[in-house]
Write a structure and sequence with these properties.
The chain has 224 residues and is an alpha/beta fold. It has a single domain, classed as Vaccinia Virus protein VP39 (Rossmann fold, 3-Layer(aba) Sandwich). Helices cover 39% and strands 21% of the residues.
Length: 224
Amino acid sequence: MGSKNKLKRFRENDTFGNVIQPSREQLMQGDFALKGNWARDFFKNNHPIVLELGCGKGEYSVSLAERFPEKNFIGIDIKGARFWRGAKTAVESGIDNVGFLRTQIELIEYAFAADEVDEIWITFPDPQIKYKRTKHRMTNADFLDRYKKILKKDGLMHLKTDSEFMHGYTLGLLHGLGHEVLYANHNIYHNEGSPTEVLEIQTHYEKLYLEKNKPITYIRFKIK
C-alpha cells in the first residue's frame, strides 16, 4: 500500500465515529475516558463486550457484529490503515454494534477496566515461531495475564489460526497452567461439532489458506 493511500485512510478514519485512536501516553496515564465505560458511552447500551485482537482488516469483527446484534464488538489493531476497511464497511452498512480501537495489544489493560470484557477472539495471529520472538506471541503467559485482568470471571477466549505450531503451543500452555480448555480442534472443516461462527465466518486470508488445503485450528478456553 502506497503512503498516499495510507494517509488517505488515516484521514478517513478520523471522520469515522466507530474508530477510537488514543495515544500511548493517554492510555498509560489513565486519561482514557472510555476505560470502564465502553458499553455506556461508546455503544450506548449494556450489551456484552467482545474484543478481536489483531483484527487486521476487521472482517471478523464486522461479521460477528452482524451475526450477534445483541453483543458489542471491538476490533483492536495498531495498524489503522488495515482496519479502515472494516470501519468503513460498518459505517456504510449501518452496523452500530462494532467499533475499532487503534492501539498495541500489550496496552489492553489500560484501555479496558476489570471485568469489562465478556469474550476475546484472537484470529490468525503471527505465531512468532523464533524463540527470541516468544514475548510477542499473543497467547503466552504474560498476555494471558493481561486478558485475565479485563475479562469477566467466566469470560471466554477464542483462538482461530492456520498455524499448527500456535495451536499446539497454546494448547500445551493452557494445560500446563491449569486453564480450562472447553473445545479444541486441529482441523475444524474436517471434524464435526465446530461452532457455526467459527466455520461460517472466513477472512480473506483464511479462504486463501483453505484453497491451499491448510488446516484451520480452533481453541475455546477460559483463563483460570
